[in-house]
Amino acid sequence: MNSTYLSLEGKIALVTGASRGIGKAVALILADAGADVAIASRTQSELEKVAEEIRALGRRALVVPTHIREVESLRRLTETVKNEFGRIDILVNNAATNPGMGPLVDQSEKMYDQIMNTNLKGYTILSQLVGRMMVEQGGGNIVNVSSVGGTTPDVGVGLYCVSKAGIIMLTRAMALELGQHNIRVNCLAPGIVKTKFSQAFWSNEAALEEEFKHTPIARVAEPEEAARVVLFLASNASSYITGQTIVMDGGSSI
Length: 254
Prior knowledge:
Elements: E1 12-16, H1 21-32, E2 36-41, H2 44-56, E3 61-65, H3 71-85, E4 90-93, H4 109-137, E5 140-145, H5 158-178, E6 183-190, H6 199-202, H7 205-212, H8 223-234, E7 245-248
Parallel strand pairs: 1-2, 1-4, 2-3, 4-5, 5-6, 6-7
């Protein structure tokens, strides 16, 4: 396959949760493929460091501090990117939270709201805002980052799994509605990735040993590996794929 299918030259991308982990890796690989990238998270100082790396690749970077749970913050985000770059060709919904662990029946309403408003409502609202922009401009591409927990529940993180399952259905529903507008919507569902977000899992040697008993590729994934899947979904290499979820878990689900 000609490598130009993976080129994002001339594209504008928006990545949330881009200050570290998978989001940072995605922002950098999209820039490396030729896109100018707007990056969003709550911490401006961390975003500025990522922006420097993007500019070092010869691409434009736009830092937009954003609180994914606040609708007005999401409105400001989309307006800022449109005003600066004129359009959004690629949206990568990646920001996520999992502030509490324990039995699902014991989780508080506050915990429910915090997880759902970040992991599902935030994705939905931003996809609506950017989706309308993409309809007007004649096309676009949305990639959602879910989790293998959205396909198979795990003990102690029930609410997180429910939110991630919602993202997978959001992907399918929006793909169904937006395909007629030349907009594709797909999803990445990673297993354990070596990020600060999932450190509690990959730093637990006993848990990893148990996990690797049924994982053909018996190691923890790197953020760059997840980013490469996002690049595939965001590029013309996947031009006839929409509404799909790619599970990246080293084979543990089989």
